[in-house]
TrEMBL record:
Source organism superkingdom: Bacteria
Record PROSITE patterns: MFS (PS50850)
Name this polypeptide is given: MFS transporter
Pfam families named among the record's database cross-references: MFS_1 (PF07690)
Provenance organism: Bradyrhizobium rifense
Signal peptide extent: none
Annotated transmembrane regions: 21-41, 61-83, 90-108, 114-137, 144-160, 180-198, 210-230, 242-264, 276-296, 316-339, 346-362, 374-396, 490-514
Length: 542
């Protein structure tokens, strides 16, 4: 990373030193957890929110898109804003405003007002995560960097595995409003820790005068527009929708304009040269592949349990909480130990191998599977969550140039937020298209007059005849059609698991291209068996 401790910490604070810097670290870690939980809760609880706000399906879809799209718009610029204006202004004040907006939203019934507040809600939420790594490096001793980054990285999997249970608890035992009101409690606490843990830095007017506002606006707008187009594409039939085409083409044009701006700007904010470092570029690609591969955890398992097994979020959430989230309390310390003594590339290979094994297991899916049949898959995914994202971040940070920390932070936020949300949108389309394909092929085998079809319809009609002979035949036909749709859904989810399996295999191929990171604070210290193994492989060990 760098030759000395100060340099390895990236841009240093310009003002005084806060008496309790650990509060700043705790604040940004809490903020990162809050951001993931709030985003996930809104997604999982969207059906309940549509009912509570009396929204149509289309209105609910745009509400979700507006909230997450605004996060993507602001997130790439937050690290630069924190460097210029100080963390107290960028995180402390928004946390209090965020609490106020979260308090107000459940009382709103006017749709335009609700959309405006959702955009503001997303913009404020988007400020909570991006500055985390920068604050960790500035305020913690080197020996604590790895555990802090582990907490930062594991929040993704933990939020995925606990959000369904939490939404179910709020809806069934409290009120749906707590999907928003939990932030009224947590956000002010985060603001207090920011105030206690950060110095009152003066505004860095030198950097402010050189601000690349055009680059920030172009990148944020382009990525958020592309996300909105992909998110709405599945619902609006992609190229058949002028809205989707306008968003995708407009976002692409703005991104090209951003690249041109960064090339021509005198002081580029996020110069694309940061991507030309082999290991950094490959690490960012692997982060994107991680977000796509982990869709088996965030989308396939809970959606199958909800759409095919017809479980409520709190019912499927119990599986993810027990076998996905809770094991992380054991798995994360193991991951930290592995990274202290083994090359992070080996650890991330272990993580993707677990994801690949879980997805391969998922391809054996049938309609008879119950919640308990997914225990092994969820456990493997928990190991994958604990041993994948953390070493990828370590690889990216170890190979990055501290002088370009804000540019690196911008691109990693695009991969973190944009990759995850775009992946969810594409997986939704994949499942829909595959379900239609399988429905077509299964339907071709149900020919009118076929002996097996006639026999099945007669058995179903005899079963329903006890409840009324007049409707028995119609109910039999409807039930048989439901069986076809169910099997088509099962086959579509199997295709989803296959897709995630091959994404994991592609990720393993990219990891093989990453070279050893230069010596730095994250260089592992092998011992015992690890040292012997490295020597046998011809790797010099000190």
């Amino acid at each position: 990373m760098a030759e000395n401790d100060d340099a390895s910490r990236g841009p240093v604070s310009r003002g005084g030193v806060a008496p309790q810097p650990l509060f700043a670290v705790a604040a940004v870690l809490l903020g990162s957890f809050l951001a993931n939980f709030d985003s996930r809760l809104t997604t999982v609880g969207l059906p309940d929110l549509r009912g509570a706000f009396s929204l149509s399906f289309d209105e609910g879809a745009w509400l979700s898109t507006a909230g997450i799209g605004s996060q993507i718009f602001i997130a790439p610029a937050v690290a630069w804003l924190a460097t210029v204006f100080g963390l107290r202004r960028v995180l402390g004040i928004p946390s209090l405003v965020y609490a106020a907006v979260s308090l107000i939203i459940p009382f709103v019934r006017d749709y335009p007002t609700l959309m405006i507040l959702s955009v503001v809600h997303g913009l404020l939420l988007g400020t909570f995560v991006p500055a985390t790594l920068m604050i960790v490096f500035r305020n913690l001793p080197i020996r604590w960097w790895l555990p802090a980054i582990a907490l930062y990285s594991i929040r993704v999997g933990f939020a995925l595995d606990t959000s369904s249970s939490l939404v179910g608890f709020y809806v069934d035992h409290l009120n749906w409003q707590w999907v928003y009101w939990q932030s009224v409690v947590i956000a002010p606490l985060m603001g207090l820790m920011v105030y206690l843990g950060t110095p009152n830095d003066p505004v860095n007017r030198a950097l402010l005068r050189e601000a690349d506002w055009g680059g920030m606006l172009l990148l944020g707008a382009s990525v958020s527009m592309i996300y909105a187009g992909l998110d709405q594409g599945n619902r609006l039939d992609w190229l058949g929708s002028g809205t989707v085409m306008a968003l995708l083409v407009g976002g692409g044009v703005l991104f090209v304009a951003f690249v041109i701006n960064e090339v021509l700007a005198r002081q580029p904010w996020a110069h694309v040269n940061v991507l030309f470092s082999r290991n950094v570029g490959l690490s960012l690609v692997v982060i994107l592949l991680y977000t796509l591969t982990s869709l088996s955890n965030s989308t396939l398992v809970p959606n199958f349990l909800g759409n095919v097994i017809l479980l409520r979020p709190e019912q499927s959430g119990l599986l993810l909480l027990t076998y996905g989230a809770l094991p992380m309390f054991v798995l994360v310390p193991i991951s930290i130990w592995l990274l202290r003594h083994f090359d992070p590339r080996l650890v991330v290979v272990l993580g993707f191998a677990c994801f690949a094994a879980a997805n391969l297991w998922g391809t054996q899916l049938t309609h008879d599977w119950a919640r308990e049949d997914f225990i092994g898959i969820v456990l493997l995914q928990a190991v994958g969550q604990s041993t994948t994202l953390l070493p990828i971040i370590i690889l990216a940070v170890s190979n990055s140039d501290p002088s370009r920390a804000t540019a690196f932070a911008a691109y990693i936020q695009i991969m973190r937020l944009g990759g995850a949300e775009i992946g969810v949108a594409l997986m939704g389309t994949w499942l829909r298209v595959r379900e239609q394909v399988h429905s077509f092929y299964l339907g071709q085998n149900l020919e009118v007059g076929d002996v097996n079809v006639v026999r099945a319809l007669k058995q179903l009609a005899d079963h329903f005849a006890a409840h009324g002979t007049g409707s028995a035949q119609a109910r039999a036909v409807g039930t048989l059609a439901g069986f076809v749709q169910r099997e088509a859904n099962v086959l579509a989810y199997i295709d989803g698991f296959w897709l995630c399996f091959w994404l994991a295999m592609v990720a393993l191929g990219f990891i093989a291209l990453i070279t050893r990171a230069p010596p730095g604070p994250f260089t592992p210290a092998p011992f015992g068996f690890a040292k012997m193994l490295l020597r046998k492989c011809g790797v010099p060990v000190t």
